[in-house]
Amino acid sequence: MTTPDDDTPKQACPICGKPTAPAYTPFCSKRCADVDLQRWLSGRYAISGREDDALGQDDGTHEE
Ligand SMILES: [Zn+2]
């Protein structure tokens, strides 16, 4: 550890690419952390909707 401050590669915020802030790791700010949270919630909603759609497809396998 000769130059810990200069040689250490700083992680970039996955949302905007800015250097991350220790208080909001791995994001650069509360705003970007909130953006990621909304994306995560949107993903859950999308998965939940797909499961519901799969049930409808299963119903179409019946024969007459
Ligand atoms: Zn950011």
UniProtKB/TrEMBL annotation:
Keywords: Metal-binding, Zinc
GO process annotations (BP): regulation of DNA-templated transcription
Known cofactor(s): Zn(2+)
CC cofactor note: Binds 1 zinc ion.
GO molecular function list: DNA topoisomerase type II (double strand cut, ATP-hydrolyzing) inhibitor activity; zinc ion binding
InterPro entries on file: DNA_gyrase_inhibitor_YacG, Znf_NHR/GATA
Superkingdom of the source species: Bacteria
Binding site for Zn(2+): 13, 16, 28, 32
Homology family: Belongs to the DNA gyrase inhibitor YacG family.
HAMAP family, alphabetized: DNA_gyrase_inhibitor_YacG (MF_00649)
Purpose: Inhibits all the catalytic activities of DNA gyrase by preventing its interaction with DNA. Acts by binding directly to the C-terminal domain of GyrB, which probably disrupts DNA binding by the gyrase.
Assembly: Interacts with GyrB.
Record protein name field: DNA gyrase inhibitor YacG
Organism from which the protein derives: Methylobacterium indicum
Gene name of this polypeptide: yacG
